[in-house]
Amino acid sequence: MGQYLSLSLPSVCVRYNSAFEIDSTLHHLGDDQFQNSELIYPLFIPDILSEIFSYFDNYTVYFRCANVCKTWRYCAWYLLNDFKFRYDENLELLILGKEDQQHAVARSQTKKGISSQILKSHNLYELRNRMLEKLLDHVVCNAKYLKKFRVLDAQQHVAFNKMITNERIEHLTNSCSDLLDTIDLTACNYLKESAFQNISKKCGQNLVYLKLRYSESIHDVLCEKYIASMQKLKYLNLSKCPYVGLYGLIHISKGCTCLEVLDVSGCLKISNFSFLNNFSTLKELYVQDTLYSSDDIQYIPSTLEKLNVRRTYNLKQLDISKIAHLKELDISYCSPLLNIHDSNNQMVTTRWETLSAVSNEWIEKLVSISPKLKELEIGKYSELLFAQ
User: Fold this and answer.
1) Sorting pLDDT into bands at 50, 70 and 90, what band is 120?
2) Quick one: pLDDT band at residue 131, thresholds 50, 70, 90?
């Protein structure tokens, strides 16, 4: 939480005049009383309001609280800068109210009330969707202070998924500022090229986090034209994107020179992982459920600290000397034919601190060469902690 002002009010007003307004009750005070009140004007009011707002649904925060006064609007739009657009079931309380909900439940217990309850539920569903669309339109057109824009639950709700349109992405990119550095469009499958073009053109130079998991809208050509130009990008999640393959990732590896985390899990169009050679800053790589094979181990960058190859059944030979520099390794549920060896024919001491080796017969050998091991997973729910 914040602290009381240590500066005099006039000097603070110059800096915060656009965000705060003096309470109207101060106009009724005398000069002496006003001078006393300015000394205790609390700067931590936004902290308190933001904490309170965090318990509200998005609709209440951005439509009701934001319209109370300047201070409340400042807290809603600036301090709550991580907007998570989700299918909010709590909107029923705004539409019906608690008492109406109780009456609806009571009526639904009678045969006569079943059909009316179904109709009411449908109307409630439609009304909730309209409120969500209204909220989304409001946010994307007022994104000046937005730092993070995340879409959640789009995979579970088709109607909700359809709300993320090219036009709304365009409004978002037009109204946002340089503050926007995180975009999560997981499972948003109704976007076309214009959406990614706007993101790249107007936000691409500032984005550090981009998540397109389960997206059927993104493909190799769009990766080449738009994602590869995001030079500040540090986190990229393309997992379960069925149309992303080697071609697009080659361009990403050459253009995204600051990338530290790459997740391409479940991308079965990647025929080989030679593009990894182009990364000079990559720290984490997730390739579980892919065609990652023994030949791809040679492409692991020296900067890599975490590797997840869980359920990569094409991985038959694992050379420990090539991955000894890692800190975290997950080889769980790999091929039962996996052979772990050391091409240098000498006992390698690894730097591994975390190791997941569920259903792996080599666990005893791996532990014996891992003196720094702190965490070991050897079963679905087993976790042992080791002192360094």
Assistant:
1) low
2) confident
Is residue 5 one of the residues assigned to a domain?
Answer: yes
Please identify, among 178, 198, 214, the residue that sits at the C-terminal boundary of a domain.
178
Structural domains in the chain (count)? 2
Please tell me the predicted confidence (pLDDT) of residue 235.
99
- More confident: 23 or 333: 333
Quick one: tokens of 286? 């997730």
| 352/388 Cα distance (integer angstroms) | 11
Domain span at 165: 81-178
For residue 34, the model assigns a pLDDT of: 42
Residue in the structure block whose two tokens are 């593009």? 275
Q: Are residues 67 and 111 in the same domain?
A: no
Instruction: Establish if 364 belongs to a structural domain.
Output: no
With H, G, I as helix, E, B as strand and everything else as coil, classify residue 319.
strand
pLDDT digits (tens, 9 = 90+) for 291-324: 999 999 999 999 999 999 999 999 999 888 889 9
pTM for the whole thing?
Answer: 0.78
364 pLDDT tier (thresholds 50, 70, 90): confident
DSSP E strands in the chain: the ranges are 82-85, 148-151, 182-184, 209-211, 235-237, 261-263, 284-286, 306-308, 317-319, 328-330, 339-341, 354-356, 375-377, 384-385
CA distances from 114 to 96, 117, 122, 354 (A): 18, 5, 12, 55
Which amino acid would we find at residue 314? N
Residue 214 falls in which region: left (phi positive, over 0), alpha (psi -120 to 50) or beta:
left
The percent of residues above 70 in pLDDT, for the chain, comes to: 76
Q: What string of DSSP letters covers 295-318?
A: GGGGG--TT--EEE-TT-TT--EE
Asked if 71 and 46 touch (Cβ cutoff 8 Å), the reply is yes
Whether 17 is in a domain gets the answer yes
- Residue 224: name the closest of 201, 204, 254 by CA: 254
Residue 119 within any structural domain of the chain: yes
CA distances from 123 to 101, 113, 127 (A): 14, 15, 6
